[in-house]
Write a sequence for this structure.
């Protein structure tokens, strides 16, 4: 069982669609996209992590997990200069990545460029309140190399992507049970993996991910709107030509 932040009931992917997982990390969303029959590109700047993703793609193919016709590959590069032609992808996932990028507007403009007109984008970032608490509890949490450089409000995230040219769709929160774990980690030391309380809570989270019991599903449904660790917003690239104002926003980015 994989921990997914994007809701694939809201963000439906059809077999044969070309889908980019931008900033794929360990590949959790890329693997799900592959299982759903997409032609997946897992993109990241971390070559070592991508090597592990490629191994998993190969293992999935060997086990016959993806439907016939699906494909998956890894690509290394920079989010500010995606190595793909305009209008390449039917859908894009950008999960827990924009908060790491200093020039987030330039990355957003690249996402718009490589998405087909009418295509959909799923963006997830840490939610404002849980993230503010983590920053307050631990400096190491957000100052480590490659760490988070900003805390988004949902309004800011939506406003930035709208100014680039995206249409804003619906949203939801995810991982309400995970926010307390990160507060504990920040309080005892983000690298203190031996802390008994942190270890015990982590075991609960692993059990929940694997078993998906009804009690924790109901608890998370209640907690998500309040302390969900991530906020997920869905966007669409308009099919109409970009306006002059949007072109100016692109130039400014």
């Amino acid at each position: 069982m994989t921990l997914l932040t994007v809701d694939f009931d809201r963000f439906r992917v059809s077999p044969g669609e070309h889908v980019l997982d931008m900033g794929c990390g360990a590949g959790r969303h890329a693997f799900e996209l592959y299982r759903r029959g997409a032609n997946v590109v897992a993109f990241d700047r971390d070559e070592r992590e991508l090597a592990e993703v490629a191994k998993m793609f190969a293992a999935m193919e060997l086990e016959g997990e993806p439907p016939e016709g699906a494909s998956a590959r890894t690509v290394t590069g920079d989010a500010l200069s995606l190595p793909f032609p305009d209008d390449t992808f039917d859908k894009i996932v950008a999960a827990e990545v924009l908060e790491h990028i200093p020039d987030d507007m330039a990355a957003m403009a690249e996402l718009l460029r490589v998405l087909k007109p009418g295509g959909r984008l799923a963006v997830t970032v840490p939610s404002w309140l849980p993230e503010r608490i983590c920053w307050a509890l631990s400096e190491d949490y957000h100052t480590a190399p490659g760490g988070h450089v900003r805390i988004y409000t949902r309004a800011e995230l939506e406003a930035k992507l709208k100014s680039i040219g995206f249409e804003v769709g619906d949203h939801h929160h995810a991982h309400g049970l995970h926010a307390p774990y990160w507060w504990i980690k920040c309080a005892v030391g983000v690298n203190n993996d031996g802390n008994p309380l942190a270890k015990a809570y982590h075991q609960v989270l692993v059990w929940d991910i694997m078993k998906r019991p009804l009690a924790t599903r109901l608890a998370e449904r209640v907690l998500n709107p309040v302390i969900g660790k991530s906020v997920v917003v869905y966007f669409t690239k308009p099919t109409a030509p970009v306006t002059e104002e949007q072109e100016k926003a692109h130039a400014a980015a």
In short: The longest strand covers residues 115-126. The chain has a mean pLDDT of 94. The CA atoms of residues 65 and 178 lie 28 Å apart.
